[in-house]
Design a protein that fits this description.
flat, single chain
Length: 92
């Protein structure tokens, strides 16, 4: 996987935005920009995996430097991850 520097920066910015939106949907308040970026990338992998298992289409993809990034599934995947983290980290 090879990127140009502007493509990589744009990829990271889009992943951070998707992670932040997913975190906001699920009610997560902790973490900063790096956590949101990681959530965006991991959410993209999880969201695409769930979508393929359920045979759902990929409605909104962005192509950057020849690589596709699933915006919708990244947001949904990030929200799922934050929801799962909230489920297991409840304080009693």
């Amino acid at each position: 996987m090879s990127f140009t520097l502007p493509g990589l920066i744009l990829f990271l910015i889009i992943a951070a935005i998707c992670g932040a939106v997913g975190k906001a949907i699920a009610g997560g308040a902790r973490g900063g920009c790096i956590a949101s970026t990681a959530l965006g990338f991991i959410g993209a992998m999880l969201g695409l995996w769930v979508a393929r298992k359920m045979k759902l289409p990929e409605p909104f993809m962005i192509r950057i430097s020849g690589h596709d990034f699933p915006i919708l599934w990244s947001i949904i995947g990030a929200a799922l991850i934050v929801g799962i983290l909230h489920l297991f980290s409840r304080r009693r």
